[in-house]
């Protein structure tokens, strides 16, 4: 989808990274996130101020825990047991060169959502993000709970089994991924095609998006929400084999 949009805007040297964000993240490569993402997910994510307690004492993002960059890996035992937790690291500026090796190490522990805050603390200040001085926390405290728009596995399975008339399941996997089967009654539109095929979806139903791991389902949720649809997404693993659903497995 992004490649087609770029081509329409006149770009001629466009390449597509087919492995996508999941493969990029699994390899431990950096993913940047925005001030807006952090503001909307405040209280649902783990924010790590890698500048350390002394800098955080003078001012830090509300809710952040201060751990010096050189100490982050040594504090592995502090990190949430839930490997699906969203972790956002920030420095004074974006700091990709300094943070890259630490992000790769954290990703190697099995965490699926590790981000670096684009612009760092300076960018947060410029965006009028909330800060606090003093009251510095140095220990991670995390309670797993659904993020905005998420649907939990039990409710998803109940929808699959009961098939409520006012709910549509949207499968945003690729055609090759659906060859083993799809959920009965689900509509398959790959996330890359979704923006251009929104008219195929009803606005009088709630649309529940799923993919294989939850990453593309969240992308679909964002596209649908921005287009005015009532929507949620499953942030969990799903496989459909011989038309039998296997959901929410480790």
TrEMBL record:
PROSITE patterns: RHODANESE_3
Domain Rhodanese: 1-33, 41-133, 163-237
Domain of life (superkingdom): Bacteria
Molecular function via GO: thiosulfate-cyanide sulfurtransferase activity
Pfam families linked: Rhodanese
Protein name (database record): Rhodanese domain-containing protein
């Amino acid at each position: 989808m992004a490649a087609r949009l770029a081509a329409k805007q006149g770009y001629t040297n466009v390449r597509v990274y087919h492995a996508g964000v999941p493969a990029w993240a699994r390899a431990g490569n950096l993913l940047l996130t925005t001030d807006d993402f952090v503001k909307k997910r405040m209280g649902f994510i783990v924010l790590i101020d890698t500048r350390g307690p002394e800098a955080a004492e003078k001012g830090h993002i509300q809710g952040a825990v201060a751990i010096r960059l050189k100490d982050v890996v040594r504090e592995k035992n502090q990190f949430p047991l839930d490997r699906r937790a969203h972790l956002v690291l920030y420095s004074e500026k974006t700091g990709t060169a300094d943070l890259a090796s630490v992000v790769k190490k954290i990703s190697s522990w099995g965490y699926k959502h590790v981000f670096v805050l684009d612009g760092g603390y300076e960018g947060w200040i410029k965006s009028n993000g909330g800060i606090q001085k003093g009251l510095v926390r140095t220990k991670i405290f995390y309670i797993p709970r659904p993020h905005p728009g998420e649907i939990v596995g039990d409710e998803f399975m109940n929808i699959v089994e009961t098939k409520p008339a006012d709910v549509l399941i949207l499968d945003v996997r690729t055609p090759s991924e659906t060859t083993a089967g799809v959920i009965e009654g689900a509509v398959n539109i790959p996330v890359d095609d979704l923006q251009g095929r929104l008219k195929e979806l009803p606005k009088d139903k709630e649309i529940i998006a799923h993919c294989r791991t939850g990453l593309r389902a969240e992308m679909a949720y964002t596209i649908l929400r921005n287009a005015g649809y009532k929507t949620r997404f499953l942030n969990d693993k799903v496989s459909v084999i011989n038309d039998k659903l296997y959901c929410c497995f480790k």
